[in-house]
C-alpha cells in the first residue's frame, strides 16, 4: 500500500497499454504522456508557481491537463463545476492562470486542438512526496468555495490505497462522477492510472446508458452516486453485466436500493469522505456501521464530531483533523455516521451550503428577499432544496434562469415559489424552516378525481402540483412515474384490494405530455393479475397520454 518517492505515475506501463476507452475512442498511455508533454510545452510561458484551471468533460483530456501541468511544474485548480461562469471565476481568483478545457464555450487552451505524438511512459512526470499537485474546491455552492491543497502524498497515497484495498489493479473503470470532484478524481482517474487500469472517457448518466457502457466496454468497476443507483434499481429491463465493484459516495444510499442491487447485481460499497479529509470509511450492505479505510484512524472528537488521527488530510492541520462529520466511534474502531455539522447538505452528490444559495438568490435583480430550506428527497438524492422567494416582478422560471448563471444545476432549488409579500417571521423577527415549508406546501393541490363510469374516473390536473416544479423549467409536464403512482395505481387498489405491488410493467407508452389544467379520463380494466390502463383527454378519447399493462402480485387472504 506504500508509494515509492519520488513517484512515477506510469511505472511498468508500456507505450501501447490502454489508459482510456469509450467516448471519442481508445487511447494509450503513450498518447496520454504525449499529449501531456505537448500541454507542458504550451505552458512554458507561465510564471513558476501559477496554477492551471482544468475544466474538461472528457476524462482523457482531463487526465492530460493534470499531468501536463505537473510536468510543467504547475499545480492545478479544479473548479467545483464546469459552468462557464464558475470556471472563469476560478481563473480570475488565480492570477496568471490558464484554463485547459475541451469545450467550445470556454476561453483558454482547447486540448482537442493540440497535435501530439505518443511518448515513452517513462517520460511522464516524476513527483516528490510533498509536491502540491491540486487545489480542490468544495462544490460551488459556497459564496467563496473553500479551497483545499492536495499534495502528491495525499492524492497518490490515497489512490494507491484504494487500488490495493479494493483490488482495482488492471481494471476498466466507468465513473459517472465529474473528475473535478475529489471522489471522481480519486476513483475515476488516479486509481486507474496508479493501478495499471483504464478509465471511461465519458460519464454516462441514464441507467440504460450506464449498463450499456459496462457491457459494451467490458468494464468491471462502476463509480456512482446514490441518486443514479436509485434510478438503476427502479428501472425495469436493465442488463446487468458481472462487475467487480460498485462504489457510491456523495450522500446516503437508501438501504432498500442497496439491498435490491445486491440481490440483482452486486453489493454496493459506500465510501464516506469529503474534499477536506479525503476518504474516511466504507461499508457494504448489510453493514450498518462504517469501517475506517486503511491508513485512517478515527477517534471521538468534541460535540460528537469525528476526529481523524491518521488519514489523507493536510498535515497543515498537525497530527489530527476534527471533521465536520458527526458520529460515534465504537470500541472496535468502526463508527456510526450521523451527518454533517456545518450547515452543508448533500444534494445529488454535491455539497450545498444553504446560506450561500440564499445569498445568491437575494443578489438577483428583482428579488426582495428569500429563504431556502432542506427537505429529505424521495429520489435517493439525500436532500432537495426548496426556495421561498419574495418578488413583485419575477416568476419561478425567471429565478431559476438567474440561478443557472451562478450555481451548479444540481444544487439549484428543486422547488421555487414566488410570493409578492414579505417572508413570514416570528416574534423574534426570524423566518423559521417550518414557516417556509408551510407556505411552500399551502398552494399545492391534490389531483381532483370524480367517478365517470365503470372502472373510469376523470382527473383535474392542478397547475400547483409539486410534480410540475423542475419538470421541466418553463415547460411543465407531469412525469410518467407520477401518472402511474397518482392516477393509475390508486384506482387499481381501490377497485381490487387483492392486488398488491407491481411486478412487471409491459408495453407502456407515454404518447403525449400531460400539462397543467388538463382534464383526463383514466380507464382501468382487469384480467387476472393483469391490469390494462389508458389515460386520455376527457372530451377527446383519441388524444391518448399514456397506456400500458401492469402485472401485479395477488395478495392472499
Description:
The protein has 557 residues and is an alpha/beta fold. Among the domains are: 97 residues, ANL, C-terminal domain (GMP Synthetase, Chain A, domain 3, 2-Layer Sandwich); 107 residues, Thiol Ester Dehydrase, Chain A, CATH 3.10.129.10. Helix content is 25%, strand content 31%. The strands form 7 sheets. It has a 9-stranded mixed beta sheet, sandwiched between helices. Helix 4 crosses helix 5.
Shape: globular
Strand content: 25-35%
* CATH architecture designation of the domain at 448-554: Roll
Q: Which secondary-structure class do the elements indicate?
A: alpha/beta
Could you tell me how far the N terminus lies from the C terminus, measured between alpha carbons in angstroms? Answer: 58 Å
CATH superfamily of the domain at 448-554: Hotdog Thioesterase
Average pLDDT, to the nearest integer?
A: 88
Strand order of the largest sheet: 3-2-12-11-13-14-15-16-17
Biggest beta sheet attributes: 9 strands, mixed
- Helix fraction? 10-25%
How much is the radius of gyration in Å?
A: 26 Å
| Unreliable runs | 140-144
Number of helices: 12
CATH class of the domain at 448-554: Alpha Beta
CATH third-tier fold name of the domain at 448-554: Thiol Ester Dehydrase, Chain A
Q: What's the total count of β strands? A: 32
